[in-house]
Amino acid sequence: MRQLMRNKGIQVSGFSLVELMVAMVIGLFLSAGLFSMFNMSATNVTTTSQFNQLQENGRIALALVERDISQLGFMGDMTGTDFVLGANTQIPAGGVPNDCVGAGANNASLPNNTPSHFRRLWGYESGVSGDSLACLNSVNSGTDVLQIKRLIGPATTTPNLNTRYYVAATPNQAIFFVGNPAPPVLANARFWEYQHHVYYIANDGDIPVLRRRTLSVNNGMANEDQLVEGIENIRVLYGFDNDGDNTADSFMPVQNVTNLMWDNELFQRLVALRIFVLVRAVEADNSYTNNTDYVLGDKTVAATGDNFRRKVVSTTVVLENPVLIR
Fold it and tell me: Measuring CA to CA, how many Å separate 194 from each of 45, 72, 94?
């Protein structure tokens, strides 16, 4: 027909069936190439985004814990001196509601009258250690819990937050009190906000979250902060100085730290902590299967063949106040 129309001088335009089929096949190949390119680009974007998220979440988690640990043992003008209730220390009547009381004879939020050192630091591995904090619920098994007590600097002249505990301190005397416009009278004292934190990991649905309990006047240790999502495990190794040079000679897991070591009753002194954090992506990536083993100090955590990316971040924190008890 097209040839007949051309013979009669009629201009014909368009494609034949064969030409149309060839064009369609070429188009399909081009579309498949574009789809593959876009799919690869999307995968790369997901991978890059998740690795950036892992790095950032790990950095934030370490920064939060490191800030507390670096100031561990700081008790204002009483730093390095033990609190002896009734001798050099006074506390508010009634104690702390909903308290988190750790192992040892003197390991609550405030010092007690037991003839034992007041613990500024304590920890355990959930589901593994024999001791635990009864105030915590649903702590993920196989993760470390860390309890820290210290004063927050700089000193203040207006301790007027009614929700916070403070300490009026001189080199020889300490008075724990509830913040109010009329602090206790203690000659030459400076006033510091008192802080008791407990760090641990518990799930929010199926997402592991680094959490923190914080001391307040009305709720005691019942205040829970969700700090960073995707923190799947935390491991703490405790560094002890055995020869008096203020440098850690060995790092050990919490199971090897004895009561005498917690209370600084031996020559060994706690001078550093090594923190390992295993960070997990918040969302799964079905294009990825994780069969990696992750080393957290002295232990290895194996992935379960799931679709979550993970990353280990770590730091070593040298204590600025290594001599907790003189």
Answer: 45, 12, 17
Domain that holds residue 293: 44-318
Rg (CA), the chain: 30
pTM (whole model) above 0.90: no
Estimate to the nearest angstrom the gap between the alpha carbon of 219 and the chain centroid. 22
Tens of pLDDT, residue by residue over 259-312, are 888 887 666 788 899 999 999 999 999 889 999 999 999 999 998 899 999 999
Evaluate whether residue 16 is within a structural domain. Answer: no
Q: Rounded to an integer, what distance in angstroms lies between the CA atom of residue 263 and that of residue 195?
A: 19
Domains in the chain: how many in total? 1
Assigned domain for 192 exists: yes
For residue 82, is it within any domain? yes
Distance set, CA 147 to CA 151, 196, 223 (Å): 14, 7, 14
DSSP 3-state of 16: coil
Answer whether residue 200 is part of any domain: yes
